[in-house]
Amino acid sequence: MTDRAVPRRRRVGVRTLLLVVGGVAVLLLGGVWVGHGMDRASAVSDAPKTARAQKAREEQAERSAAAGFGGAGAAGELPVVRDCGYGEPLREPKIITLTCATGATVASDIEWDEYTADRAEGTGVVQVSSGANGSARTAFRARLTLSAPRDVDGTRAFTSLEVAYTGLTPAGKTTETYSIA
Q1: Facing residues of 139 across strands?
Q2: Are 153 and 169 in contact (CB under 8 A)?
Q3: pLDDT, tens only, 33-53
Q4: Domain total for the chain?
Q5: Within 10 A of 100 (CB to CB), how many other CB atoms are there?
Q6: How far is it, in rounded angstroms, from Cα 159 to Cα 39?
Q7: For the region Disordered, what residue ranges are annotated (predicted)?
């Protein structure tokens, strides 16, 4: 009888094992990165376009005029927001300019969950312009909190706005506070 040679199985080498583990790690990290990119894309697509933002601002001004803001009013009256400290006083504004000197950062599409005499909380999209003439806009979802109501020019107004980013953030900051009076 003839002896047959049985082929021996090769064992997996350390180098092969490291290559497989490294490949899986790269695929996982790539998936996380793409997932974050999807979140950013949805925030940008949900952000209002310039004409839409302007129309919302005009509608707010009309509602404020119809409501007859002005004067300190009765005790317990809800505070207003004056955009950049001199704009038309508005209650529950949909748009607030955060960097008044340049207008490069704007909170928009604001939906207020709570609006009381001491504080207001809601969610919105913070748009940051980084290019010349505001051409490179990036949008970030955020939680907004108005606080520190004071009498400003005879009208009770919120004077501070805290922005807590809920996803991606500009410049790596998770919370920013703006003076809005």
Answers
A1: 127
A2: no
A3: 666 555 444 444 444 555 566
A4: 2
A5: 16
A6: 31
A7: 43-68
